[in-house]
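**Sequence, structure tokens**
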Amino acid sequence: MDKDSNIVITGAAGFIGSCLVSFLNTEGYNKLILVDDFSQTDKDVNLKGKKFLKKIERELFFEWLQKEQPKIEFVYHIGARTDTTEFDYSIHEHLNVAYSQKMWRYCCENNIPLVYASSAATYGAGELGYNDDESIIEKLKPLNPYGISKNEFDKWALRPAQDDKLRRAQDDKLRQVQDDSLPESKSPPAWAGLKFFNVYGPNEYHKARMASVIFHSYNQIIKNGFVKLFKSHKPEFNDGEQLRDFIYVKDVLKICFWFLKCWQKDHKLFISGIYNVGTGKARSFNDLVKATFSAMDLKPDIRYIDMPEDIRNTYQYYTQAEMQKIKAAGYTEKMFSLEEGVDDYIRNYLSKNQYY
């Protein structure tokens, strides 16, 4: 596999997907097949100036694959419905479960490595911690339909060979035809599910309510001179001291690219499995907002408001990725601290209205 190989990126017009397109371009990879719902024109600017081979509508992609029979060398399945306030599970089930199963099966049948986006939302309230030990995935209790859908696919991906009859039944339902010609392999030649924690950075301008707290804080400061944060509704947490593992998108991109480089260098270096993608260090929203003010060369002014009722019962008060697994697999690059990431994001992107 070389830089002229075809690489698929789903969710390519979105936040992480479009950043990944740019990152791969800088590494010399331009034969990229981009998949997304391109009717959402508010994301068009995310791909401006980027190099790629073809754009294909998400719902036409598998039909296109069957017709064109392209040679695909690697797949990044980043696309998903990520709105945690969308409670219609059928939407999540279609995009985050069924579509991902079809992508998995395609990679399996065509011997293509697959990296897909999972989520830290699968951990729910964190009753079992934030350990990416695959033995606990069946026991996780996500708090919203988005997290449930991501965990359902993780469970399906890990299903052992003896459960393949159930997988076959699900696949038949997806194809709407009976097909007994399943490949011998039950998995792609290499695969990784990446449990993204709280990712922030450029190209999230279109995400509205679901954009990062940094994005919203920056805009609140520009407009009002202060930032509103949610009060705590748990006595063990002070206002603004809810904790998250915030990871800068540039670190996410390096991890995604590392799997590709492992595969290229030696297939055995790509150790399949589900991995946390965070920094391993939880930080408070107060810390995050103070870093935002600092990057704008302003003194902090934080005010606290009640948390909306529609998210109060499903709100995570603490997340922190355990990162030993991916380090043991060979990833050792230093990550941005919260202050470093926020400073780069604001000074080089938000304040200049720049895209990555």
